[in-house]
């Protein structure tokens, strides 16, 4: 993956469009380049633009953890502080971020993130951002939703946002957190950065599988315990009772079957008798119905024959009328065609006549209007005939008027300039007087200050500072020595007694001196003599030291006062020089203004002469001077009036000539149209008469035809008669068939009724015999069963058998169920034990156990990459993993491979180690792809010169590996060493612009 270009508009401090093109020089051939500029100019905004275009996120907005905090937008909308739309510059209506890159498939793509405000207003509501993806090689746009396009970009570059910010973009101090993070945080970070979330998922699934397996095992145990089983004795007793019950039930069921057979025979006989009675009634009803339908069919048949005969007679009587109607129909068709033809001819003649009359009226109206317009134009020319010369000589006249207007404007402008110059001269005079007064005041202050400076300087020269310092130091040492000796003497227990035993001339047992001044004056503390000087008391020495210190302090105060006076003198000299320069500048301005005054006066005279000359020439063309008053009031309006009049004069002249030429043509047109009107009128009258004649003939034939067949068509009458005769024939045929059918049904029904009566007699005798047999069986059963009814005994025995059989079947089912559950229990026990062992090794509810195991191996791989980079940065340290943990430790080779904690590293050492980890992770995240671009944001400020050189050498080695590296840093030595720089320069008002150097 390789970054080709970064573009954007209106992002943070970068106002307007900006672009960084890595395919153009000097960035094309630069392996490493710096992004420099003052703090807050917008260096990191360039990297934000890259992340926005690719992921619609930035590292800085992701760090806004307080998502519940809302900030006010210009549209009064509340937005989360982590919303990347806040990067849109205030006061702008839209912005975008765009990145061109080479994807893993080798194609060039362009990713674009854009945002705008409603109605394209600076104070409009922020709209949802839009993502777009273009294939530059195919010149087409990828389609899809925002989430689909985001997933597509991740597939193309092969990196998620977290992996991108570790392998392509190393944000400000973002990776240093990994170095000293806790083990859980390290595992989580490694999981996100390397895409190994699978291990956490596996750990959680192992934990869940173990819980489910144990739950399933416990559930089967509970099910087995809940199953109830009988003892063997109880089960045997149930079998015996069931066999006796089944035997008794068989006997009862046999008796029941016999009873049901006898009862069924009685019911069958009763049902047979009932069925025969129903059949007998139905046969009687069918016979009556058939007799009735036969009578109706005979009457309808006779009626149909009569209607057929009447229809034939009626049709014979209409034959003559039908023939007459057909003749009239033929005559009506002819008359209708004649009438239509005459109406068409009348319509054409009417239209031609109307068109000719309209043309004649229009021609007459045009001729009249033309004559009126000629009269109007002629009268207008007569009214303004005395001004014809103005229209003819307009060009020359306008030249003179424009020259006069220009001269007049020049005079007015020069006069206003003269007034302004006079005011400026007065103002400069006032300024000069004020500046001269100020200069005089400053001169007096300068003289006073110089006098004070001389006095202060003379006073300070009288003090010998080195001698004073030497005297103060000597006096302070003597005083301290005296105090020490006094303290030593006072520390002696019998100092007074020993002092009283001293004899002049005899050596002191303490100091060896033969002179003992304290013997003479034991109550007065005296300082020992120094090189034959007089002995001075401590109090006097302290007063002398204070006096000398005050003298030194006074010298120090005088020195500061002298320096202040010197600064004041410099400031006064500068102010006086500025005042004198300002006075000279004002005098120079006065001279320039006087020169401009003379020039403007000359301009007034020159323009006045031109004005008089132009007005005189215009008087000649106008022929008088009456026009000057109107021109002087408003030259522009006067000029427009002249121009409008000349234009109207020429337009009216041309129009009058055209109308005069058109008048004769219009006269001829009117005469031609008038001669053509009589012939058209005659044609119209003839067509009208013919149309009236044809209409009368048609109306007469139509009335005569309406009297025949009631106006109905002859063919319709014949068709109606044929249809009626066919219907009558079909009806008679059906009625004849009905008679035959109902006659046969009646004969058949009589025979059936006779047979049913015989069957009824036989069924009644059989029913009596069957009832007698049933009564005999019932008496025998009651005698053998102690009077108990079969209906009471059989349900009781059946229920008893059912209960015994159910209990035995339940016992069998429970045995089978327990046997099956026992097998399943063994399977679940094995499965539960297996998951329990696996859970003990790698399972956990939060996925941390297996994640730490897996990330331990991942961390080892990362450290191998990081140590390769660390050897290039510094050979003193090597990173290792603390055994059985995810914590890191440092091996210090300069201290005999001593193990050190990462928290003991200095700021510069921590940066080098973090940089090595970051570069190692870049290699780890991109070990399956080639990442050709790397951006490092800040972090070099804590390095000394040697370490900075080592870091630069390491980055140079990355450049030799084919990567293009961009570094953001405020370190001047670093940016000076990098030959190619992208400078982010401030332009005021919070704006910045880019420059490639």
Short description, anyone?
The protein is α+β, with helices and mostly antiparallel strands and 997 residues long. Helix content is 70%, strand content 10%.
Basic shape: flat
Q: What is the SS-derived class?
A: alpha+beta
Which blocks of ≥5 consecutive residues have pLDDT under 50? 522-535
Largest β sheet strand count, sense and barrel closure = 6 strands, antiparallel
Specify Rg, calculated over alpha carbons.
66 Å
Strand content: 5-15%
* Helical amount: over 70%
What's the β-strand tally?
17
How many helical elements? 23
**Overall average residue pLDDT:** 78
**Biggest sheet, spatial arrangement of strands:** 2-1-6-7-8-9
First-last Cα distance:
26 Å
Write structural notes for this entry.
By secondary structure, this protein is of the alpha+beta class. Among the domains are: 233-317 and 717-738 and 764-784, no CATH class; 323-383 and 635-705. Helix content is 70%, strand content 10%. The chain contains 23 helices and 17 strands. It has helices at 43-55, 59-62, 146-157, 161-167, 176-179, 183-194, 197-226, 232-317, 319-383, 388-392, 394-461, 465-491, 495-501, 517-520, 538-622, 628-633, 635-707, 714-784, 790-842, 848-873, 907-925, 945-960, 972-977, and strands at 2-11, 14-21, 32-36, 70-72, 78-80, 94-102, 108-116, 130-135, 140-141, 169-170, 877-881, 888-892, 898-901, 933-937, 964-968, 981-988, 991-996. Strands 2-1-6-7-8-9 form a six-stranded antiparallel beta sheet. A six-stranded mixed beta sheet has the order 10-14-15-3-16-17. A three-stranded antiparallel beta sheet has the order 11-12-13. Helix 9 (319-383) packs antiparallel against helix 17, helix 11 packs antiparallel against helix 15 (538-622) and helix 12 runs antiparallel to helix 15. The longest helix has 86 residues, at 232-317. It is flat. The two termini are 26 Å apart.
């Amino acid at each position: 993956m390789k970054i080709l270009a970064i573009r954007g508009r209106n992002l943070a401090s970068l106002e307007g469009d900006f672009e960084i093109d890595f395919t153009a020089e000097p960035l094309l051939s630069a392996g490493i380049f710096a992004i420099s500029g003052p703090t807050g100019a917008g260096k990191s905004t360039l990297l934000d633009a890259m992340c926005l275009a690719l992921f619609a996120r930035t590292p800085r907005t992701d760090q806004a953890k307080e998502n519940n905090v809302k900030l006010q937008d210009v549209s009064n909308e509340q937005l989360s502080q982590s919303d990347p739309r806040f990067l849109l510059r205030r006061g702008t209506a839209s912005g975008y971020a765009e990145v061109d890159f080479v994807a893993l498939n080798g194609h060039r793509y362009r990713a674009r993130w854009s945002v705008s405000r409603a109605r394209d207003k600076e104070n409009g509501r922020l709209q949802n951002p839009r993502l777009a993806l273009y294939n530059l090689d195919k010149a087409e746009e990828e389609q899809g939703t925002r989430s689909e396009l985001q997933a597509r970009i991740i597939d193309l570059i092969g990196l998620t946002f977290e992996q991108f910010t570790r392998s392509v973009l190393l944000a400000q101090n973002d990776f240093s957190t990994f170095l000293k993070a806790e083990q859980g945080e390290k595992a989580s970070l490694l999981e996100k950065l390397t895409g190994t979330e699978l291990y956490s998922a596996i750990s959680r699934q192992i934990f869940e599988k173990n819980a489910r397996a144990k739950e399933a095992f416990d559930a089967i145990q509970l099910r087995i315990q809940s199953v109830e089983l009988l003892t063997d004795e109880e089960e045997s007793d149930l079998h015996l009772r069931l066999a006796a019950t089944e035997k008794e039930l068989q006997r009862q069921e046999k008796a029941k079957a016999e009873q049901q057979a006898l009862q069924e025979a009685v019911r069958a006989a009763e049902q047979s008798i009932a069925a025969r009675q129903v059949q007998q009634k139905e046969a009687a009803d069918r016979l009556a119905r058939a007799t009735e339908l036969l009578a109706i069919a005979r009457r309808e048949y006779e009626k149909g024959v009569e209607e057929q005969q009447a229809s034939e007679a009626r049709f014979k009587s209409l034959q003559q009328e039908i023939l007459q109607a057909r003749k009239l129909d033929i005559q009506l068709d002819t008359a209708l065609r004649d009438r239509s033809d005459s109406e068409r001819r009348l319509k054409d003649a009417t239209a031609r006549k109307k068109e000719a009359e309209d043309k004649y009226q229009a021609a007459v109206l045009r001729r009249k209007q033309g004559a009126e317009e000629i009269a109007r134009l002629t009268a207008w020319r007569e009214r303004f005939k005395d001004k014809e010369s103005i229209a003819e000589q307009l060009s020359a006249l306008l030249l003179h008027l424009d020259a006069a207007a220009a001269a007049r404007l020049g005079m007015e402008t020069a006069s206003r300039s003269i007034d302004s110059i006079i005011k400026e001269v007065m103002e400069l005079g006032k300024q000069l007087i004020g500046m001269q007064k100020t200069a005089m005041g400053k001169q007096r202050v300068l003289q006073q200050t110089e006098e004070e400076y001389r006095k202060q300087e003379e006073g300070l020269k009288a003090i010998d500072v080195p001698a004073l310092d030497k005297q103060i130091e000597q006096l302070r040492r003597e005083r301290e020595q005296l105090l020490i000796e006094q303290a030593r003497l006072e520390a002696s227990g019998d100092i007074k007694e020993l002092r009283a035993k001293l004899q002049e001339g005899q050596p002191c047992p303490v100091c060896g001196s033969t002179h003992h001044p304290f013997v003479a004056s034991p109550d007065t503390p005296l300082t020992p003599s120094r090189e034959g000087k007089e002995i001075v008391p401590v109090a006097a020495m302290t007063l002398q030291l204070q006096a000398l210190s005050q003298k030194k302090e006074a010298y120090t105060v005088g020195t500061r006062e002298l320096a202040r006076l010197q600064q004041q003198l410099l400031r006064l000299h500068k102010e006086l020089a500025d005042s004198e320069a300002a006075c000279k500048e004002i005098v120079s301005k006065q001279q320039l203004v006087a020169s401009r005054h003379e020039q403007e006066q000359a301009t007034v005279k020159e323009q006045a002469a031109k004005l008089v000359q132009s007005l005189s020439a215009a008087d000649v063309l106008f022929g008088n001077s009456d026009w000057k008053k109107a021109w002087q009031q408003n030259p522009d309006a006067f000029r427009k009036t002249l121009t409008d009049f000349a234009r109207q004069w020429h337009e009216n002249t041309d129009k009058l000539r055209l109308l005069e030429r058109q008048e004769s043509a219009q006269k001829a047109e009117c005469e031609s149209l008038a001669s053509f009107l009589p012939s058209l009128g005659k044609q119209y009258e003839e067509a009208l008469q013919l149309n009236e004649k044809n209409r009368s003939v048609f109306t007469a034939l139509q009335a005569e035809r309406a009297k025949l067949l009631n106006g109905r068509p002859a063919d319709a009458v014949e068709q109606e008669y044929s249809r009626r005769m066919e219907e009558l024939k079909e009806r008679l045929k059906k009625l004849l068939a009905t008679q035959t059918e109902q006659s046969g049904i009646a004969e058949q029904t009589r025979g059936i009724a006779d047979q049913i009566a015989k069957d009824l007699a036989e069924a009644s005798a059989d029913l009596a015999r069957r009832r007698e047999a049933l009564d005999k069986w019932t008496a025998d059963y009651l005698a053998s069963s102690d009077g108990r009814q079969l209906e009471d005994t059989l349900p009781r025995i059946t229920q008893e058998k059912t209960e015994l059989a159910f209990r035995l079947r339940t016992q069998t089912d429970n045995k089978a169920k327990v046997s099956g559950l026992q097998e399943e229990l063994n399977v679940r026990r094995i499965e539960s034990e297996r998951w329990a062992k696996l859970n003990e090794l790698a399972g956990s509810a939060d996925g941390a156990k297996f994640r730490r195991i897996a990330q331990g191996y991942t961390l080892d791989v990362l450290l191998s990459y990081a140590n390769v980079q660390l050897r290039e940065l510094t050979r003193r340290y090597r990173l290792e993993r603390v055994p059985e943990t995810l914590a890191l430790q440092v091996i210090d080779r300069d201290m005999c491979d001593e193990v050190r904690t990462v928290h003991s590293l200095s700021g510069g050492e921590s940066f080098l180690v973090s940089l090595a980890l970051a570069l190692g992770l870049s290699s780890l995240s991109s070990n399956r792809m080639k990442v050709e671009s790397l951006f490092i944001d800040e972090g070099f400020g804590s390095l000394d010169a040697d370490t900075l050189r080592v870091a630069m050498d390491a980055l140079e080695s990355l450049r030799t590996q084919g990567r293009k590296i961009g570094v953001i840093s405020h370190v001047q030595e670093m940016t000076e060493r990098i030959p190619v720089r992208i400078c982010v320069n401030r332009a005021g008002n919070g704006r910045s612009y880019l420059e490639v150097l």
